[in-house]
User: Which sequence fits this backbone?
């Protein structure tokens, strides 16, 4: 079926599997450009806006349920918590990508009275990751 009956779950971004050059010294590989992978559905950390077979999934977490009851237990626990934060986002603006909403999220957080914005930029001494939170 030319790959349509296969899928890949990768704990990496799509670009790690879509190297544009033929240099082996460049980052990543060309796996998703191979003919056998062109029709395969891919579940990745970050998808490509130009490839409809890519589906973005969140980063893996420490929560790995082994049975349905684990999921229900977790959901019940989360519903009972008085959570301080409703929404969190980690990322940087993407001004060169007009379809990206990341800049909008950052602007909304900056203008929010109830949100917090942690800006890290390139200064690793300040923090280790950029994060936006709303409550």
Assistant:
């Amino acid at each position: 079926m030319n790959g349509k009956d296969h899928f890949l779950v990768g704990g990496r971004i799509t670009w790690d599997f879509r190297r544009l050059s033929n240099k082996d010294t460049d980052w990543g590989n060309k796996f998703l450009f191979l003919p056998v992978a062109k029709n395969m559905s891919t579940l990745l950390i970050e998808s490509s806006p130009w490839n409809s077979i890519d589906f973005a999934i969140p980063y893996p977490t420490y929560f790995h349920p082994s049975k349905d009851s684990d999921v229900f237990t977790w959901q019940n626990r989360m519903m009972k918590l008085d959570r301080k934060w409703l929404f969190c986002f980690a990322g940087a603006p993407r001004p060169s990508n007009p379809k990206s909403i990341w800049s909008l999220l950052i602007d909304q957080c900056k203008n929010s009275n109830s949100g917090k914005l942690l800006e890290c930029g390139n200064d690793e001494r300040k923090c280790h990751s950029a994060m936006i939170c709303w409550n």
Notes: Strands lie at 7-9, 41-44, 54-56, 87-89, 115-118, 131-134.
